[in-house]
Amino acid sequence: MADDKATVRYNIPQNDDISKPQLAACLNDYKEDVMEGMRWLCRRAMRAAWMHDRSKLQDLDGYFDAIQEAKSRGIDVHDTEWYGEHYLKERSHLDRRVPDDVNLIDVLECIVAAIMEKETDQQLPELSAETLQKAYANTFKLLQANVEKAE
Predict the structure, then answer these.
(1) In a 10 Å sphere around its CB, with 0-12 CB exposed, 13-18 middle and 19+ buried, how is residue 110 labelled?
(2) What is the pTM of this model?
(3) Which domain does 69 fall in, by range?
(4) Low-confidence residues of the chain, pLDDT below 50?
(5) Is there a domain that residue 126 lies in?
């Protein structure tokens, strides 16, 4: 994303030569830094929401044909070849495919998409502990790579 890196200022001196007001000021700066990191993650989450199912819109004819094919063959649309390709292009179908760089934004998108989908019974997608741990670690790395220390 071209829009940003989070900038942090936090630095509590690691010695006894800090006054209580200085400590309070440092902690307030730290709180602001945490909010900056959360804003950065929120912008990434909103971008994921904006891009959700873009392959359906980019190939509306193919998507429509897959729906018609599923109806004519009496199968679930999710079992069509078109949907197989869709799963390769979208990050939110973590119960079908887990990208190497899966992150917690993908996990949140997966949850929200499952709840918002009107054709399903809103079952929680099954994600492995390994997927969740990988998403956690990758989110840490993603944010870490996008934080700049203020001079």
Answers:
(1) buried
(2) 0.84
(3) 53-89
(4) 1-2
(5) yes
